[in-house]
Amino acid sequence: QDPPGSGNGGILLTDQKFDNFILEIDMKPDWGVCSGLYLRGNDIGQCFQMMVDYHDRGNVGHIYGEGTGGFNTRMFDINGKLDAAGKLASLTTAGHKKATDVGLVRGCTPEAWLKAWKVNDWNTAKVRVAGGDYPTITTWINGLEVCRFDGDKSRHRGYNKANVLKTLGPQGSIAVQVHGGRGWPKGAKCRWKNIKIREL
């Protein structure tokens, strides 16, 4: 957020537009931030988003329809446990759902996610987007497949594939996001590095 604590949001987008690709990126969000990785995004922030909502009742790794109907495929929420100094010590999960109940082909268990995620350290996200107009999107965290979303066959009640295609088109930018709002902790950051993209 610029200036810090202002509540301003923003996105950093690639100039190049991508349709089918594999992306790897390292991320290190501070606890309490609300961020995201945009896939096939446009200049006003509509996209398929891999959530990086690293806060209580948040989620990292599932797919959300940013500005495209608000469909949300999260299978569980994450919550933090803080130590005596107020620093994040560990994570728990809640609100568990089945993959099919949230419009996914499949997804990992909360226990597997907790084992894969490295608290207070760098984590590697991998995303595969393939399939033309209605993409299949698969996400991984540190080698664990978090979820697979089929844009052609998903039955999520908030997902309308024709409307999403009309809004986003068959390709778009890759971007990282800072969510607007006053809940962003003062001085907190979401760091990104080692961005690798391979077109399919």
> What is the number of helices?
2
Give the biggest sheet: 6 strands, antiparallel
Oligomer: single chain
Total strands: 13
Mean pLDDT: 94
Strand content: over 45%
- Span from first to last CA? 33 Å
What radius of gyration results from the CA coordinates?
16 Å
- With strands numbered from the N-terminus, the spatial order across the biggest sheet is 8-11-10-9-2-13
Q: What's the shape?
A: globular
Residues in helix, %: under 10%
Order of helices and strands: EEEEEEEEHEEEHEE
Structural class, from secondary structure content? mainly beta
Contiguous uncertain segments of 5+ residues: none
Description:
The protein is mostly beta strands and 200 residues long. It contains two helices and 13 strands. The protein has helices spanning 110-116, 161-168; strands spanning 10-13, 21-29, 33-41, 47-54, 59-66, 77-82, 88-94, 106-107, 123-130, 136-141, 144-150, 173-178, 190-199. It has a six-stranded antiparallel beta sheet. It has a five-stranded antiparallel beta sheet with strand order 1-12-3-4-5, with no helix packed on it. Strands 6-7 form a two-stranded antiparallel sheet. A hairpin with a 5-residue loop joins strand 6 and strand 7. The radius of gyration is 16 Å and the shape is globular.
